[in-house]
Design goal:
The protein is an alpha/beta fold and 328 residues long. The protein is built from six helices and 19 strands. Helices cover 23% and strands 25% of the residues. α1 packs parallel to α2, α1 packs parallel to α6 and α4 packs parallel to α5. It is elongated, with a radius of gyration of 22 Å. Bound molecules: NADP nicotinamide-adenine-dinucleotide phosphate (NAP).
């Protein structure tokens, strides 16, 4: 099978679906590669209280269902597969899955970001046996257990608060004494009787044969190593962008985030980026969705411009690499 679209969107988080809704409404043909795990990071979150229009909050997976339905309603074709390779060298871009090849005039990359790991010796071995990167998904299994949450950002605070629904004791372990998390969340966690803090400390390994039985912690001031008996270890230490497919293809920053060149356009003309994959800073559902809308509008205008230039040709730009400067 060999299919051709005006726009191919890679990713099915808020950025991908919102981009799809905008381009589909602009009467452009669009396919969304949802990936085998459709919906992105919000599928792993609980209540979203700050998405506009949902004044009483909405569950992450329900929000994603609605965004998906919205894109589909306007004719976006949803493909529940991963893109495994891209070729942006020719005028028509090529996206490959395990089974098929798709051709597109433009591509919007909205592949998002994934959870980071600590890289501890026994972390992966005990994954799913007490080690988790998603309190929302796994919290239920820790009723009346003692757990730690590692990290000092908003995610760590939120996950700790969420885990108090189940766990007997939640301990936040953070490597510094100040927090990246917003003060309101830190305060909420501090005031919760089920949460305590161990700061200026790092987890150096997870203990347990078949399931997690504890962790080793090193105090970063004194160097003292101690053991903390817990049954759950939730990592909340941030994310990295899902840009493996684009290394050596697009301009990325030192952390691997896509560097936009002109508005949402990447270093290859006709290839655009939206959401967390190009945003190490805001990383919110609403900012990702807004980015998706911006990318879709940039795509539409770019395609219109190409049409004009086809009638009145100027030097070709598709597939050419543009000099990158970081946007302020
Ligand atoms: P983050 O803000 O990057 O925080 C990551 C935390 O993990 C930091 O405290 C960091 O410590 C720690 N960390 C990183 N690597 C570590 C390592 N190797 N060992 C130990 N600790 C490590 O990530 P996030 O909390 O996932 O938040 C990401 C973005 O989403 C933020 O913009 C946040 O505001 C947003 N967010 C918002 C909400 C909300 O508004 N309700 C909820 C969740 C997330 P240092 O501080 O020492 O670097």
């Amino acid at each position: 099978m060999n299919k051709q679209y005006d726009v191919v969107i890679l990713g099915s988080g808020p950025a991908g679906y919102m981009a799809a809704t905008y381009v589909a409404r602009a009467r452009l043909s669009v396919a969304v590669f949802q990936g085998y795990q459709a919906g992105g990071q919000l599928m792993l979150s609980t209540e979203i209280e700050n998405f506009p229009g949902f004044d009483t909050g909405i569950l992450g997976p329900e929000l994603m269902e609605r965004l998906e339905a919205q894109a589909e309603r306007f004719g976006a074709e949803l493909i529940p597969q991963d893109a495994i390779a891209v070729d942006f060298r020719s005028r028509t871009f090529v996206v490959q899955t395990d089974t098929d090849e798709y051709h597109a005039r433009t591509v919007i990359i909205a592949t998002g970001a994934s959870a980071r790991w600590l890289g501890l010796p026994n972390e992966q071995r005990l994954l799913g046996r007490g080690v988790s990167v998603c309190a929302t998904c796994d919290g239920f299994f820790f009723r009346e257990k003692d757990v730690v949450v590692v990290g000092g950002g908003d995610t760590a605070m939120e996950e700790a608060l969420f885990l108090t629904r189940y766990a007997r004791q939640v301990t936040i372990v953070h490597r510094r004494s100040t927090f990246r998390a917003s003060p309101i969340l830190v305060e909420k966690a501090r005031q919760h009787p089920g949460i305590r803090f161990i700061v200026e400390s790092e987890v150096i390994d997870v203990l347990g044969d078949d399931v997690v039985e504890g962790i080793y912690i090193r105090n970063m001031q004194t160097g003292t190593v101690s053991q903390l008996p817990v049954q759950g270890v939730f990592l909340a230490i941030g994310h990295h962008p899902n840009t493996d497919l684009f290394r050596g293809v697009l301009q990325l920053d030192e952390e691997g985030y896509i560097l936009p060149v002109e508005r949402t356009m990447t270093s290859i003309a006709g290839v655009f980026a939206a959401g967390d994959v190009a945003d190490p800073y805001y990383r919110q559902a609403i900012t990702a969705a807004a980015d998706g809308a911006r990318a879709a509008m940039d795509v539409r205008r770019w395609l219109e411009q190409q049409q004009i230039e086809k009638r009145d040709p100027v030097p070709e730009t598709v597939g050419s690499v543009i000099e990158v400067t970081r946007m302020p």
